[in-house]
Structures are given as structure tokens and as C-alpha cells.
Specification:
This protein is α/β, with parallel strands linked by helices. The protein has five helices and eight strands. The protein has one domain (26-187): Vaccinia Virus protein VP39 (Rossmann fold, 3-Layer(aba) Sandwich). The chain has an eight-stranded mixed sheet with strand order 3-2-1-4-5-8-7-6. Helix 3 links the parallel strand 2 (70-74) and strand 3. The longest helix has 13 residues, at 78-90. It is globular.
Length: 188
């Protein structure tokens, strides 16, 4: 795996080994960022990200590479959280991030209490854990963490649909690529 573009372009990142980790592929990450920037690479400058179920941290690190000012990595697995920290250290990234080693819902509630808001939220729970998609999207739908222009991106198996709407959070776009699908959501 490597960083696709930006300050750390072509630099390698590593994912922890094991069957519980399914890193977002380089190609799928490139698709996410192409959609979000729509030909305007500086569109992410100064943005704040939530990278939930972060795994190796590839999506959040890609965001930092492309100009995000802050990424909140949330990963409950100790081995994966250690991999995120190692990747950040290997790239020499010393600030603009927080690694939260706890379950996503717990971390989100803590961030709400801290009045953290985000521009982008990427979530990629284990594909077999359909409940996590619903729980996180439902929480975000009523959370002050999302601004009117915030975008939530859920990566999921193409055979599973997390849903088109959660309260006022509505799917605005769905892209399939291989066995993965990206659902983009925004507040209505």
C-alpha cells in the first residue's frame, strides 16, 4: 500500500496482518479522493477528518497528505492502532492527528462532548458487522459533529446496503468498484 498523492505521494504504508483487517485499496482510496476533490486538489486544504475503524490509517493519512489540518483516527484493535502510529511516525507526521484506541461509538460520543466537528467522515467497519454501519450512521445523523456541508463516506461490501437514509443523513452518491462500494452521505 502507498499514499496516492500529496505531500507523502508514493510513500509506503503498512497494514497489520490478520483476517480482521481489510485495508482500503489504493485504487478505492484514489476514487474517494477524486470524488471529493473533483479536479480541485486544494479542496481538502484545512479540512478535519474522522477515520473510523481506521485499520492502517490509510484514508486518514491520505487526507493529511492532501492538506487536511486534522484527522481523528478511531480504531479499537490495539495492533491496528499501533500500525497507525507506526505509519504516522515513519512518514514524519508529528501533528494534526489524534489516535483514539476505543470503539467507534464511544469515541464519537467523546468527540461530541469535546465539540469536535468534521468536514469528512470515512467509516469502514468489518463488512460482516452490519450493525456498526447502522449504529454509526444513525449517531452521526443526529450529531452536532456534522456541519451542513460535511460528507460521510461508508465503504462496504457491494452485496450489502447500509441504507439510503438515517434521519436527515441521506445518501447522495453510490459508487461500486470491484467487490467494494462507496456510499456518500450528506445532511438533507
Amino acid at each position: 500500500m502507498r499514499i496516492i498523492a500529496g505531500q507523502f505521494r508514493s510513500r509506503p504504508i503498512h497494514a497489520p496482518r490478520g483476517r480482521n483487517v481489510r485495508p482500503t485499496s489504493d485504487r478505492l482510496r484514489e476514487t474517494v479522493f477524486n470524488v471529493l476533490t473533483a479536479g480541485v486538489p486544494e479542496a481538502l486544504a484545512g479540512s478535519v477528518w474522522l477515520d473510523l475503524f481506521a485499520g492502517s490509517g490509510a484514508v486518514g493519512i491520505e487526507a493529511l497528505s492532501r492538506g487536511a489540518s486534522m484527522v481523528h483516527f478511531v480504531e479499537s484493535a490495539r495492533v491496528a492502532a499501533a500500525a497507525i502510529r507506526q505509519n504516522l511516525q515513519a512518514l514524519g507526521i508529528k501533528g494534526g492527528f489524534e489516535v483514539s484506541e476505543r470503539p467507534a461509538l464511544t469515541a464519537l460520543r467523546q468527540m461530541e462532548r469535546a465539540a469536535i466537528t468534521c468536514d469528512y467522515c470515512f467509516l469502514d467497519p468489518p463488512w460482516a458487522d452490519a450493525e456498526s454501519y447502522c449504529d454509526v450512521l444513525a449517531l452521526l445523523a443526529q450529531s452536532p459533529m456534522l456541519k451542513p456541508a460535511s460528507i460521510v463516506i461508508a465503504e462496504h461490501d457491494q452485496r450489502f446496503d447500509p441504507g439510503a437514509a438515517f434521519g436527515t443523513l441521506r445518501r447522495i452518491r453510490k459508487l461500486e468498484q470491484g467487490d467494494a462500494t462507496l456510499s456518500f452521505y450528506r445532511l438533507a
